[in-house]
Amino acid sequence: MSQFDVVIRGGTVVTASDSFMADVGIRSGKIVAVTENLDDGAKTIDACGLMVMPGGIDSHVHLAQPAFGGPTMADGFETGTRSAIAGDNTTVIPFALQPRGASLRGSVVDYHEEADGQSFCDYGFHLIITDPTPSVLAQELPALVDDGYTSFKVFRTYDDMALNDRQLLEVFSCARNCRALVMVDCEGYDAIKFMTERLEAAGSKAPYYHAVSRPESVEREATHRAISHAELTDVPIMVVHVSGREAMEQIRWAQNRGLKIYGETCPRTSL
């Protein structure tokens, strides 16, 4: 009987630091050997001429999530994770959204029901907090972090999701106590509403004006404000889908001061 369940033979193994020719031995779902000339496994895969590398982790996806305005996003766990596998991603981390007025724990349970039996790859959940009530911050969120949901997202815009400064500080403080990571969507809610209303009044409603309603200053200001709150509460944060140089410069400024501020890029095509 072979000592390996699967042997991947003759490929170019790619790691975080190097690439080299080797065989890969797998037992009980884990890689247990990376070397030359392994014996055949119960199953042997010929990888000659191919690269053997870890599957990707897409840490920011939205699946089976209600979109703004009511409808559910087109991709659920079945289609979304099938696409992930086709693109060599073997783990995805979508967001369990707490609708305002709903239990955070109940939202996670409901989201698991969307995923159960539908996913083609491994997955975990970030949380989205839209209603940081005292019970959520004192009971539900700490308990969920203990259960392994160690990252959550908050928004600075959108009517049914935006948190004000006090709410943001309360969430950051809770994250500090729980040793969790906060992901922040940094756009200035009031500035966007102001610009949007002016554009609508002028009849400027074409898709092009979506970008006009969100100049770089809107992202820069919200990013700086989130960084300031993170500094005050001593909590690490990740500014998600950074799309402008000015917001990036705020993040670099914070990092140069020794703050634990991270950024996620968001490449876009021009309108």
From TrEMBL:
SUPFAM superfamilies: Composite domain of metallo-dependent hydrolases (SSF51338), Metallo-dependent hydrolases (SSF51556). InterPro entries: Metal-dep_hydrolase_composite, Metal_Hydrolase, Metallo-dep_Hydrolases_sf. Gene3D superfamilies: Metal-dependent hydrolases (3.20.20.140). This is D-hydantoinase. It comes from the Bacteria.
